[in-house]
Amino acid sequence: MPEATLNVLFLCTHNSARSILAEAILNLIGKGRFKGFSAGSSPRDNQQPNPLGLQMLQSAGISIDGLHSKSWDEFGLPDAPHMDLVITVCDNAAGEVCPYWPGQPATAHWGYADPSAGDGTDAQKLEAFRQTLLALMRRLQLLVSLPVEKLQKTMLQNTARDLAKA
């Protein structure tokens, strides 16, 4: 019997950098076992993914097709995909009161500094995006390599939280 695909939602405040990177990476390396999604707690009007983040994904050979910024409200709608795991990737989103997620998915916080923050040059910011992409890639590779028994709902939350220490 084939394994069910685990849906993972990555949250950040604006859904323009870290959560977008995580969604794209997981969809590349998830091998059909995982499907990545991303959203923000309060994306700005007309929010778009950070162009430097998209540039870094493309230069790493990761598809940016379909990536767009959106509110986490979309994932509380009746026709939204069911989430198995919700991971905050920025400290601001981790401190916010999250909405009720249908099915009560496992949750974890993986904090990363905002690669778009600061007044550095574009080259410095691009390097920050590269470092964030590499850090996310390492952690997500650990997640997708977990044996099936570690991905059962009762184990998933503890496992995802342990990966925050990796």
Elements, N to C (H/E): EHEHEHEHH
What is the third-level CATH name, the topology? Rossmann fold
Distance between the termini: 31 Å
Question: Low-confidence runs (pLDDT<50, min 5 residues)?
Answer: none
Count of spatially separate domains:
1
User: Which CATH first-tier class would you pick?
Assistant: Alpha Beta
Based on CA atoms alone, the radius of gyration comes out at 15 Å
What does this entry look like structurally?
With 166 residues, the protein is α/β, with parallel strands linked by helices. It has a single domain, classed as Rossmann fold. The protein has five helices and four strands, in the order βαβαβαβαα. It has helices spanning 18-29, 51-59, 91-95, 122-144, 153-163; strands spanning 6-12, 34-40, 85-88, 106-109. α1 (18-29) crosses α4 and α2 crosses α4. The model has no long low-confidence stretch (mean pLDDT 87).
Question: Can you summarize this structure?
Answer:
It comes from Rhodoferax antarcticus ANT.BR. 36% of the residues lie in helices and 13% in strands.
Characteristics:
alpha/beta; 166 residues; single chain; 5 helices; four-stranded parallel beta sheet; arsenical resistance; 4 strands; globular; Ptyr_pPase; 36% helix; Rossmann fold; 13% strand
